[in-house]
Amino acid sequence: MLSNLLRPSHRPTQSTISPTHQFLLAPTPQQTSTFTTTSPTLAKGNRPRIDRRITLIRYHLHHPKTPRPLRFSRLRALRHWTIHRAAMLYRQQQRRTQELELERQYNAMRAACEELRIGVGDGGRLYRQAMVRKGIFGGKAQSEGGVLGGNGGVPIEYARAQTDGPPRKGWDEGWTRG
Amino acid sequence: MALPVYIIRPAARCLRTPRAHTQFLTQSFSTTLSRPDEASVETTSTTTTPAPPPPPPPKLDPNLITTRKEEHLLAATGRTPIGSRRRRAAIQSTSNIPFEQLPYQCFQEARKILAADREEKLVQIEEERKRIKKVQETPAERLGGEMSKKGKLVAMQKYLEDMKIWADINDPMVKKRFEDGMGDMNRPIYRHLADKKWRQYRRKIQLQRITQMHIVPDLLPHIDPVAEVTLAFGRHKIQPGAFVDSRISADPVRLTVQVFDKGPRLVSVVVLDADVPSPETDGFTTRCHFLAVNIPVTPTATSLPLAKFKEGGSQCILPWLPPFAQKGSPYHRLSVFVLQHRDGKPLDLDRVKCLGRDGFSMRAFLSQHKVVPVGVALFRSIWDEGTARVMEKAGIEGANIEFLRKKPEKLPYKKKDGARYRGYRKT
User: Basic and acidic residues bias located where (chain A) (predicted)?
Assistant: First the structure.
């Protein structure tokens, strides 16, 4: 049975289980005969079926690796709450500053591009050149004789979508660029 | 190895002030004398004065005493000790540091962050106040009309109220005080917390009972309670929708009306029986058991004993009539409505005075007067052994009437001969 397979090896004995969890244990068969401790229903094989979810909850509740529940005194809980609130507040503040910084950077870039497009007075030539995206993922760096905007970065072919498993064809050893 | 201990100790000594230690010190100063010359001074002074001053009574703190003797001494002064002896002993032996000053580093750092945030919020509140004032002073034409200006002001006011709550919501002392029931309902944060707590459970129960027992839509088409109304007859607190013994409900009910928005307002209270049997129409009608208008209510003044509103008073229109259910009639739903006056204006008494008890219609009352239902409570009454006496005392007739169901008419089938049924022999 599945529940037998899932039974952890270091289960506490019944005596250590708190009375509050006793109801989760399998019900002891009621003794109806003086000769046998097995009730007729069990002997016939049609034993009462216990919901598998209940069994699993029972096993995991009493698993030694299950951490004990957090129990705090009142003031300790209040201190815990205070620290938690402060941590949440701090995180929120950090997120807010990051967002603001990103927004500021974006606005600055946009303003610079707008200036290039209109303010320079060359009919937008500089702007068009700045918008060229050729080779931005690869190619030699511009200083090493690459095209405009080349940065010697990661080739675009490597920018594949991340997957859970390996590709079907495996690693292509013989692959060379272009 | 002893050095670090020595370094840590003075700080701990500053924070902790063990009571037993100080007590020992004070006692040693007052009773024993360390130097013999002091003693001689003492003796000379006693010889000159005719009577020694009586020893001062021992200081008895009802929070700290633990022994039976001390308890008896305290009882002699007419006070009782607070809490259990175990609790008092625990308080005695623990350091008496206020919660905010508990020396936990992480906790103190957290408090610093929260305090800094609060300061920021206070500055923002001031700014928002200034902005509101500026908008108020600007003529409406420049803000796109009167409606636009009004809407803008409402939104800004709401933001300001929210800010006031956000400034305090992270304060552990506020939370603690609220949980202790010591919150000041004049402050927005405590009203907010109380409202949240009410909506979590008690309001849901209240709404469930109203809908289950069809107060909505029998008496009102709809209600959205925004004030908590609880009922009590004397000491008996009444759960929403509970059956109340007629002897208990003979005296006027005591309402507790807790509103969660600021300021005073005027309310009316209506107690309505929705299940008065009417044999003429073979149906049911309503009866007003109580009506009082122009009652001031604030977030702090919550108690509203209806016994206060006597007949002939300026506020009372219909005095308390004990709820009663005649024998055989199904249970009566007695609902208590708290109606808030619009714009805080009192109702015109002359218009209300003409209202009668029988056939009182809540819908008509709402449409004829400028009131909004803000709170509702419910209890039920049924014929019991005390009802007849209660009715007699209140001068209500009809205690001897018992309602019986009409026998259903026989179906027009011919009854078959009894002899055909098994085990039945016609003699």
Answer: 166-178
Q: What single DSSP character describes residue B268?
A: E
Q: Domain boundary at B165, B182, B199, which?
A: B182
User: pTM for this one?
Assistant: 0.69
Nearest to A81 among B109, B113, B172 (CB): B172
Instruction: Specify if B89 maps to a domain.
Output: no
Q: Say whether both B321 and B247 belong to one domain.
A: yes
Domain count, chain A: 3
ipTM at complex level: 0.73
Please name the member of A75, A83, A93 whose beta carbon is closest to the beta carbon of B106: A83
Measured between CA atoms, how close is B237 to chain A, in angstroms?
28
Q: Do B160 and B218 have their domain in common?
A: no
CB pairs under 8 A between A and B: 37
**pLDDT tens track for B75-99:** 998 888 888 888 888 888 777 788 9
* Candidate from A79, A87, A89 with C-beta closest to B104: A79
Cα end-to-end distance, chain A, whole Å: 58
Report CB contact under 8 Å: B107, A87: no
Buried-exposed string B257-285: b where 16+ CB fall within 10 A, e elsewhere:
bbbbeeeebbbbbbbbbbbbbeeeeeeeb
CB contact under 8 A, A85 and B114: yes
Question: Residue A34 domain-assigned?
Answer: yes
